[in-house]
Structure formats: C-alpha cells, structure tokens
Specification:
Layout: E1 2-5, E2 11-14, E3 20-26, E4 32-36, E5 40-44, H1 47-53, H2 58-61, E6 63-70, E7 73-84, E8 91-95, H3 101-106, E9 110-114, E10 117-121, E11 128-133, E12 139-141, E13 150-152
Length: 154
C-alpha cells in the first residue's frame, strides 16, 4: 500500500499493484473524503483537528433545524432532542409535518455526533446522512453528491 498526491489536489491510496483503491478529495474543515461504491465513505483527517471537532457539544445542536436544498428555502424542519432514540441508536429527533417526501422516505429516526459531524440516522442500519459544520455556522451534507442538503437554524 502507498499514498500518492494527485496533481488535482486529491490523495490516492494505491494497492501493492499500484492500482487506486480510494481517491480522497478535500472535504469540509481540511479533511479528505473517499466514496467507494458499495463500501461507504472513508474520511482522512489530521488527528489534532479531530480533537478540536470533539468539542462540539450536544447542547449546541439540540433544538430546531431547517433542512434545505438551497439556502433560505426549507424543505423540512427537524428538532434534535436530548433524549435517547427509541431504536437505541443515538438521540431522538422529531419531524415537523409537511416535509419533503424524499426525506420522509429516508426515514430519519435518530441523530448523533461523531468525529465533529452530525449524523442523522434513517430507519435502516445503512441509512445515514452526515453533516459537516460550515464556516457560517450551518451544516451541509458530506460528501457532497447529488442534490445538496443544508441544515441551518430557522
């Protein structure tokens, strides 16, 4: 195994045969992310930065949040609660009526903080949306793929 910087700014992980196993592109807050089809998302970051991220407190994020595809146009309002989720996987959340059908199909049931990110868990073990903190104090789905999803205070 070897690491190789790419001229585009990404970092490639190579196997013993020199083939790319994963390509990490720059993500939020100086971390790098690699998406592998059927295998999930991998994150590469500075451990010192991870310690800083650990400072996110539950009290900071509990409460109401608007989910939006573009800033200022909410498609759903969720409330992150400081109580255990019924499924035992994180903390509970509540969804306001009138949410975007695509988000309802995802089936948000719980949330948690992991590695400085907010994880919103769906009703299956593999359904997870990861939000990274943005410079403006809001949150954005990471890695960015498909339609954007932002999370901001109302």
């Amino acid at each position: 195994m070897a690491w190789l910087p790419d001229p585009s700014g990404s970092v490639r992980l190579l196997n013993a045969q020199g083939r790319t196993v994963a390509e990490f592109t720059e993500g939020a807050n100086g971390s790098y992310e690699a998406l592998r089809e059927g295998d999930g998302v991998y994150f590469l970051g500075n451990p010192a930065a991870a310690d800083e991220d650990a400072e996110i407190k539950v009290e900071e994020v509990v409460g109401e949040w608007d989910l939006a595809r573009q800033a200022g146009t909410p498609v759903c309002r969720v409330t992150l609660l400081d109580q255990p989720a019924g499924n035992g996987r994180g903390k509970a959340l509540a969804i306001a009526s009138g949410c975007d059908p695509a988000l309802l199909r995802f089936g948000p049931v719980a949330w948690d903080i992991e590695g400085g990110n907010i994880l919103v868990r769906g009703d299956t073990d593999t359904a997870v949306i990861r939000f990274a903190r943005q410079e403006d104090g809001g949150w954005a789905r990471t890695p960015e793929r498909g339609r954007p999803l932002l999370m901001n205070r109302p």
